[in-house]
Amino acid sequence: VSLQQITDSFIPCMNPPDPSASSFDPTHIAAEDTRAHAIPLPSPPAIHPAFNDPLTLDDISSIQSYLKRTTHSNSTGVDAATYDLLINIDNDLLLPLFQCAIEQYSTQTCNYRAIALESCVLKFASLLVHHKLCLALEQSNTIPPSQNGFLEGYHTNNNTFILRTIIDKARARGETIYLVFVDISNAFPSTNQSSLWNKLS
Fold it and tell me: Where are the domains of the chain?
């Protein structure tokens, strides 16, 4: 397979669909883009306190605790740093390292890296960002009880159990159930980035 064939295959997956399609509301998309472009860089404080607070020792400890109680890959990047190494480093030393990494300006191209095998240090930093996102969502009661994916203590098989219970109850009552399973093609790349930025600001 040639590089051009791979490129031709992946470009449609990495770009959003045509917003002029009938399934999109062009007025709403234009309004979202206008709002997003009006946000200065670096962006002003967010409405979610968790996004504005600097990292704390408790944040570092929560990620270390998560790594200790879960199964995870210890594959290392070029720095050869493992999760075990990060767990055993004093938190007072880790805090300024990750705080400095997160505070780097996103407008500087030197802060971007090509996608490759992530080091455990980078994955630890990603977990810190995920931790902040979850805090903001929890504090704002944004996530409904029906959301069982990507949340600690919840599992996607919870929904399977709930569905099975509904089916059993309907069968016992002689009722008919109508189900719709939605498979959204190209879901993540199709997400409107302006809308996401507006939600986080």
Answer: 3-142, 145-185
